[in-house]
């Protein structure tokens, strides 16, 4: 049930990112594509980047929880993913490169640790 909590919180963040794109599209009167607008491009990429990484990360976290990983490790990995996606999403909106890098590092680290732990549980 730990993953369910993180999935729900991340879903809310995803909806917020969707609304940011919708709001910019409406304000700039751009219904398709980005119209060459830098702020809309950033919002679209933040939204897309989220959906490119979060589902796979949550699947791995679910598998770890399902296989009996102690809850504190699941919470740590979930918190890392949530923090990473929050940092990355807002860094793109405000063009904050250090925060963007931190967000991707946390996301990749979550994925790497999860992948290694899944492999280790298969070997032993």
Automatic annotation (TrEMBL):
<feature type="transmembrane region" description="Helical">
    <location>
        <begin position="70"/>
        <end position="87"/>
    </location>
</feature>
<keyword id="KW-0472">Membrane</keyword>
<feature type="transmembrane region" description="Helical">
    <location>
        <begin position="6"/>
        <end position="22"/>
    </location>
</feature>
<dbReference type="Pfam" id="PF01124">
    <property type="entry name" value="MAPEG"/>
</dbReference>
<dbReference type="InterPro" id="IPR001129">
    <property type="entry name" value="Membr-assoc_MAPEG"/>
</dbReference>
<dbReference type="InterPro" id="IPR023352">
    <property type="entry name" value="MAPEG-like_dom_sf"/>
</dbReference>
<feature type="transmembrane region" description="Helical">
    <location>
        <begin position="43"/>
        <end position="64"/>
    </location>
</feature>
<keyword id="KW-0812">Transmembrane</keyword>
<protein>
    <submittedName>
        <fullName>MAPEG family protein</fullName>
    </submittedName>
</protein>
<feature type="transmembrane region" description="Helical">
    <location>
        <begin position="99"/>
        <end position="120"/>
    </location>
</feature>
<keyword id="KW-1133">Transmembrane helix</keyword>
